[in-house]
């Protein structure tokens, strides 16, 4: 059986490169991760919005090399975790035949 954990994190403003640690349960953690969640996503999102923050959900597995590299490489990139990034924008795209769909994309400026 594979154990997969959902880790809820708030997109907090981070001024320095984040440091990660391996928790007792074998998963990785960032200083800006929310420590306790009852997995009530609506409540977590409302709490994050009230604090002027976003909500990120990360799925990890114990011993996962890609998960470790996510923390070592991506979450140590100041451009990725600096305040205000990424900002999602939604655009309307008209498909062949005239139907329209919404496209979500990262806006970096």
Which structural traits does this protein have?
alpha+beta; extended; two-stranded antiparallel sheet; 109 residues; single chain; 20% helix; disordered N terminus
Secondary structure blueprint with pairings:
Layout: E1 4-11, E2 20-22, E3 28-30, H1 41-50, E4 54-61, H2 65-72, H3 78-81, E5 87-94, E6 100-107
Helix content: 10-25%
Give the strand line-up of the largest sheet.
Answer: 1-4
Quickly count the helices. 3
Largest sheet: 2 strands, antiparallel
Any idea how many domains?
1
What kind of oligomer do you see? single chain
Characterize the overall form: extended
Strand content: 25-35%
What is the straight-line distance between the termini?
43 Å
Element string (H = helix, E = strand): EEEHEHHEE
Parts with pLDDT < 50 across at least 5 consecutive residues: 1-18
Mean model confidence by pLDDT: 71
- Which structural class fits the helix and strand makeup? alpha+beta
What would you report as the Rg, rounded to the nearest angstrom?
Answer: 17 Å
Quick one: how many beta strands?
6
Could you write a compact summary of the structure shown?
With 109 residues, the chain is of the alpha+beta class. It has helices at residues 41-50, 65-72, 78-81, and strands at residues 4-11, 20-22, 28-30, 54-61, 87-94, 100-107.
